[in-house]
Amino acid sequence: MRVWIFFLIAVTAWNCSTDTEEKCAYVPDTKSIVLDFQFEQLEDSLPALTSKQQLVNFFSRHPAIRDYVFVRDAYPNDSVFINGMYARFSNPHIDTLLSETKKVFGDIAALKEEFRSAFTTLKYYYPEFQVPKVQTVITGLETDLFVSDSLIVVGLDYYLGKGARYRPNMYEYMLRRYERNFIVPSVVLLLGIDARYNETDLSDRTVLADMISYGKAYYFAKHMLPCVPDSVLIGYTAEEIAGARANQDLIWKKLVEDEVFFATSTQVKQRYIAERPKTYEVGDQAPGRIGTWVGWQIVNKYASRHPEFTLPEIMRQKDAKVIFNKSGYRPVEP
């Protein structure tokens, strides 16, 4: 009976906070940092090819695009791969895709500056950071992003937004993260979850470990992009994130009630961590992946209670239970 009462409270009480203002995180002084930054625009290259040999030459110059963006190994042989790629990029619809890409991104100057700003801030916190090359392409909706320590490839046509004629084939709640302003935050989040920055205890299989790992990634991303709204970083609507803030006590009660934190089952992780339109176990208005959002709040609280720790030191804390216990994050009903 208690669970049903909670569901009723969660559904009826979920509301938007009146305090919806997004605040910047600490903005470091990076004026003295000089960045060696390579940004290569290739979106015109593939549609402009007029022969299969030119396509072969392009892929020879850009093997990472061939192997990881277009996934050469998914094809039985080179001939089938090249024939398929040539058919794709000689299709007249590619011209429409390219035209829409240019309309949305213009000369790419704004995107380039967003990358430069994020990388400069990353260099501030991690002086040893080696800035990767960034390349932009159109892929025929093949791949959104490829991120490695030395190269980032952005499939611009994935990020054309609601008005685009062609869009990725996915659910609407996921599609909203494929707007142009999500590109750099998505890249920074991928860096933030990477073991180079985000150290974790791989033997800890609990939901809490996943929550804290994702929470650290969001904490990392917020510091690299201090004035990007939290809603963009986590991919919620403004209403969803305001509702999550206003109802932290209800979310907390449900996580405690369902004994979520130290569970290890795949089913519990699917409910609270995995990609879903809503976390129905909390309430019909609770956004999906609510466990990752709570993990972010726990890390924020831990950092605020321990100002002696730098960002890299927080990211190096492997023990999720230490962050959880020392955060003191225990929201209660006002």
What would you say this structure looks like, in words?
The protein has 334 residues and is mostly helical. It folds into 2 domains: 39-179, no CATH class; 197-327, no CATH class. The protein is built from 17 helices and 4 strands. The chain has helices at residues 2-13, 45-48, 52-61, 63-69, 78-89, 93-105, 109-125, 172-175, 183-193, 207-224, 230-234, 238-246, 248-257, 266-272, 290-305, 311-316, 320-327, and strands spanning 39-41, 133-137, 145-147, 151-155. Strands 1-2-4-3 form a 4-stranded mixed sheet, sandwiched between helices. Helix 1 (2-13) packs antiparallel against helix 13, helix 9 packs across helix 10 (207-224) and helix 15 packs across helix 17 (320-327). The model is unreliable at 1-20 (pLDDT under 50).
User: Total number of helical segments?
Assistant: 17
> What structural class is derived from the secondary structure elements?
mainly alpha
Main sheet properties: 4 strands, mixed
Q: Which residues sit in consecutive blocks of at least 5 with pLDDT less than 50?
A: 1-20
Spatial strand arrangement across the major sheet: 1-2-4-3
| Average of the residue pLDDT scores | 92
Give the total of beta strands: 4
Helix content: 40-55%
Strand-residue proportion:
under 5%
